[in-house]
Design a protein that fits this description.
Order of helices and strands: HHHH
Mean pLDDT: 93
Largest sheet: none
Helix content: over 70%
């Protein structure tokens, strides 16, 4: 099985990310109704949590959709067998920024509506942001080496 190809593993992941992105947009649009339904099941009616959760999930949901979209772009270049481009470096930096923003939102949530999962998600997104910054630098250096190689006869 091929790894980097439209018909390989990276192509399968790209198609999965496309489905996640489309589903995420659907959830994003239906968010007010989904939250009311969910809180209604938990608390037999909506509460003040609705007015916190709605903007919180809109902000973090938008950032998560941004991350998925950037991953789709990266996998698009992987499928073309051209991963070492500056566009991937920029995508990784945008993913890092979005991860840190999501982490900041969850840190705020710790003080308002804390749960064990909230703490874990804040830590996961901090680690993801740091990982993406490091990976962006590795890709940037690979782009420089590739460009130097392309200029060498």
């Amino acid at each position: 099985m091929h790894i980097l190809d439209d018909k390989g593993l990276s192509g399968i992941v790209k198609r999965f990310l496309d489905i996640v992105f489309i589903g995420g947009i659907g959830i994003f649009i239906a968010l007010p109704y989904v939250i009311k339904w969910y809180l209604g099941k938990l608390y037999e009616g909506t509460t003040e949590k609705y007015w916190f959760l709605l903007p919180f999930l809109y902000i973090t949901g938008f950032l998560a959709l941004m991350i998925v979209n950037e991953l789709r772009r990266i996998f698009g270049t992987l499928n073309k067998r051209n991963p070492f481009t500056m566009s991937n470096v920029k995508s990784l930096k945008r993913i890092a920024a979005a991860s840190f923003a999501i982490s900041a939102a969850y840190i705020v949530k710790i003080f308002l509506f804390n749960s064990f999962l909230t703490i874990i998600l804040a830590m996961v997104f901090i680690i993801a942001g740091l990982f993406c910054i490091i990976l962006a630098e590795v890709f940037r250096q690979a782009v420089i080496v590739k460009e130097e190689n392309d200029l060498t006869i």
